[in-house]
Amino acid sequence: MGKARTRKGGGGKLSRSETVTVRLDPMLNYLCDIAARVNRQTKSSFIEMAVKDAIARTPIQPQNPGVTVWAEAGQIWDVDEPDRFVKLAINYPELLTYEEQVLWKTLCSYDWYWDDTASRTLEKAHWVRIRGDWATLKQVAQGVSPETELEAFNPGELWHLLQEANEAALSGDDDKFQEAQNRLAEHLLNKTVKEEDDGKGV
User: Structural domain boundaries of the chain?
Assistant: First the structure.
């Protein structure tokens, strides 16, 4: 069973362009300037063109040289940071950095962010919830915020626990029913404590 969640923060939007600082040795910098003049471009425009050309020639997987990073742009790009992160994690998990792997594991551990608790696919991602909690998810993955920030009460979790208790009662297994009751009580207690802490500004 996955974990519950609370909502805080969202994903940011991209500006029309981003500034990237590039270090070039003196000769390469000079030749870049000359090449830009030859093409009647600014140096930044020439570098952007060169980067696009390199992206169009770089295989996204060494074992599949026919598919380039540029060709897969539609599978890994989105204007929303949460969306493009999930796309990359699902389509090319081997390209995630260590920090991104931790974030992906955090996201996958909460059923609240998925329409199917047994599946972690693009079709089953609950995008509204992921975008809404994106800032908190990153903070928890980075260790800046505790996991309790994502372990608050939500109706979906309560329904799951009630269903579990009902199935245990129908089965006639007293031990299983008692365990289900204990989990339900713990969940409601956590909800009460969280609401009290929020009221105190903790």
Answer: 26-74, 80-144, 155-200
